[in-house]
Amino acid sequence: NENEKETTPINALTDSYTGISEQNTADFGLSLEEDYDCEDSDDGIDYYQKGTLTKTYDDGSVERLEDSCYTDNLRLAEFYCNNGKMAFEILECDNSCEAGACVLSRR
Fold first, then answer.
1. Which of 54, 49, 55 is nearest to 76 (CA)?
2. Which residues contact 63 (CB under 8 A, 6 or more apart)?
3. Interval 22-72: pLDDT, tens
4. CA distances (Å), 103 to each of 27, 29, 43, 58, 107, in order?
5. HSE-CB of 95 using CA atoms within 13 angstroms
6. Residues 88 and 10 sit within 8 Å (Cβ to Cβ)
């Protein structure tokens, strides 16, 4: 059906969306005012390595968000820390997206 939205690893975000804004924080159940420590296992933006962003809150609770491929196996949702807060960008990989990372060209 044309009107059905594609199921994605990060519900209902648009292709053009990058960064974090008040409008889209509801997709993660987040508030921009939350206080947490942010850590990214792939040290920031690395499209070719799957990473996990870890948010550790003052009360000791932990939330993890993994870099994820869309169901079309072309687009990647890349999570990273920006000034100590969660951010992400959505991009189209040059070749394909597999297991949470863009694939380098196969020669």
1. 49
2. 36, 54, 55, 57
3. 444 445 555 555 689 999 998 889 999 999 999 999 999 999 999 999 999
4. 27, 30, 18, 37, 12
5. 10
6. yes
- Quote the CA–CA distance of 2 and 6 in Å, as a whole number: 10
Q: Which residues contact 70 (CB under 8 A, 6 or more apart)?
A: 6, 8, 9, 76, 77, 90, 97
pLDDT of 14 higher than 90: no
Per-residue pLDDT, 9: 39
CA distance 83 to 87: 9
Q: Rounded CA gap, 57 and 49, in Å? A: 25
Percentage of residues of the chain with pLDDT beyond 90: 51
